[in-house]
Design goal:
- This protein has two domains: 4-131, 3-Layer(aba) Sandwich (Rossmann fold); 145-203, no CATH class.
- Helix content is 42%, strand content 13%.
- It has helices at residues 25-36, 43-56, 78-90, 108-122, 137-140, 160-169, 180-188, 195-203; strands at residues 10-13, 96-100, 127-131, 145-150, 153-159.
- A three-stranded parallel β-sheet has the order 1-2-3, with helices on one face.
- A hairpin with a 2-residue loop joins strand 4 (145-150) and strand 5.
- The chain is elongated.
- The model is unreliable at 1-7 (pLDDT under 50).
Length: 204
């Protein structure tokens, strides 16, 4: 476990993963540890932290597999690449983790697995904030806090569970068989060819 004095406040995970494809997962993590962890950290402590993060993110089985390029047949899977990107940011044990569309490019099953992993991490006391792109209803239900932006302003900030009632109070009721995330995005977006009507609704 990295010592508290070297624990950083926050890290930011990019939407697009940048890896050296010829490295294995473990080699990548060792390289990241040397870059990110304080220079006074011993080699043994770095190696211990690398093993800990690989275990926490379920990457032990592919630890000695070459990462590869996204368009190659060999290498780790898309879901493993996403988890490896998160793993890189966790090496310094940040209190707050910002992730830009961590599920983009994943199928619904892998996206759900990744968000469940992030939820488990959040339940240990870490704050995880991420933008999410077209989540399934299952994935969306895993989020407990929701921020919706409309035309650069906050349209809603609160629990995911209260969002339906909030929109209902504005006479915008989500159909029972509709994905709530699709409904919210539709109501707070400026729709092409309906810009004036959309902005009036957002202003209201």
């Amino acid at each position: 476990m990295v010592s508290k004095e070297w624990r950083v406040v926050g890290n930011y995970g990019l939407k697009n993963d940048l890896f050296i494809g010829k490295l294995t997962v473990r080699e990548h993590m060792r390289f990241q540890a040397r870059l990110r962890m304080h220079r006074s950290t011993t080699s043994e402590a770095r190696e211990c932290r690398v093993d800990e993060v690989l275990r926490d993110l379920g990457l032990q089985k592919c630890a000695d597999t070459r990462i590869g390029a996204p368009d190659e047949e060999t290498g780790i899977s898309g879901g493993e690449r996403k988890r490896l990107a998160v793993a890189s940011e966790l090496l310094t044990n940040p209190s707050i983790l910002f992730l830009d569309e961590p599920t983009s490019g994943l199928d619904s099953f892998m996206a759900k697995n990744l968000v469940e992993m992030l939820l488990n991490m959040a339940q240990t006391g870490r704050t995880i904030i991420c933008t999410i792109h077209q989540p399934s209803s299952e994935v969306f239900s895993l989020f407990n806090q929701l921020l919706l932006m409309a035309d650069g302003r906050v349209a809603y900030l609160g629990t995911s569970g209260n969002a339906l009632e909030f929109f209902k109070s504005l006479d915008l009721e989500c159909p029972s068989n509709y994905n709530p995330s699709d409904f919210y995005i539709n109501k707070v977006s400026v729709i092409p060819e309906l810009e004036e009507e959309s902005r009036e609704r957002i202003k209201y």
